[in-house]
Known about the structure:
- The protein is mostly helical.
- The chain has one domain (21-78).
- Helices cover 66% and strands 0% of the residues.
- It is built from four helices and no strands.
- It has helices at 2-6, 25-45, 49-63, 68-78.
Amino acid sequence: MMAWAHGWYGYGPHMGWGLGWLGWLYPLFFLALLILGVYLVVRTLAPKQEDRALEILKERYARGEIDKETFERMKRDLS
């Protein structure tokens, strides 16, 4: 009966995750981790612009639209 009077059987707002005024930092920390994870996944899966530009350059060279000298110069410019 006495434990009920103190509430939560000895577990109050200052136990565990609830560190008083610092308690609001934990949700922000986990939200930041979630946003970082989504950013890294999107960045990894998104095609890189440089790779596509080099593919286009190779296609143009293969079709004969540009000569070898122009191809090499443009390839250096891309890297």
